[in-house]
């Protein structure tokens, strides 16, 4: 069925149609070659339909952008559990909780404005260290290149770089880790602490130190244990430029099973 009708010229008095919603309306005429297409649809309905479609397109675009951002956060090392977590999700039940939260927010604000510095989260299992670190990355992305990774996973990447046909050499890996806007290394002290691992950690932290880029370490160990796990030289570089140790000295905040 032909939905279009044509006329050779625009009539002095436009034909009219009737819209159940808007009542009588004039037909519109649009030039097409040497003739005119008669637009018999209600212009008000067409405008409403266009506005509704625009709203749907905007909503779909927003959903797609949110999904892309969530994927990029997960690719940066934030777990799906924390891919949308914010600072407001952190439960503050004591003054110590409030101090830890404030330190994380202040550090993030400082990094977002282009500042440098380092931070160490030290404390017991389940006290919210990784959650706060994830909130920091979620706050900074996509404007900053961030990564959260366990030290053991970074060591595995190092060993993979030694293999034949590896996609990234050790030099390339160190360069990548040394140039991120923010690197958060989790589970420090869980590795075996071999000489190779300690040297690798130093190379990462030293590279970031030279580039004046911020690093965050997360560990269940105390300050002395962290120093032993990563070595004196790496620890001292972290403490420079106003580096802070934030103690998470309270019980687990995870719900009991």
Automatic annotation (TrEMBL):
<dbReference type="InterPro" id="IPR003593">
    <property type="entry name" value="AAA+_ATPase"/>
</dbReference>
<dbReference type="GO" id="GO:0005524">
    <property type="term" value="F:ATP binding"/>
</dbReference>
<protein>
    <submittedName>
        <fullName>AAA family ATPase</fullName>
    </submittedName>
</protein>
<feature type="domain" description="AAA+ ATPase">
    <location>
        <begin position="115"/>
        <end position="241"/>
    </location>
</feature>
<dbReference type="Pfam" id="PF01695">
    <property type="entry name" value="IstB_IS21"/>
</dbReference>
<dbReference type="InterPro" id="IPR027417">
    <property type="entry name" value="P-loop_NTPase"/>
</dbReference>
<dbReference type="InterPro" id="IPR002611">
    <property type="entry name" value="IstB_ATP-bd"/>
</dbReference>
<dbReference type="GO" id="GO:0006260">
    <property type="term" value="P:DNA replication"/>
</dbReference>
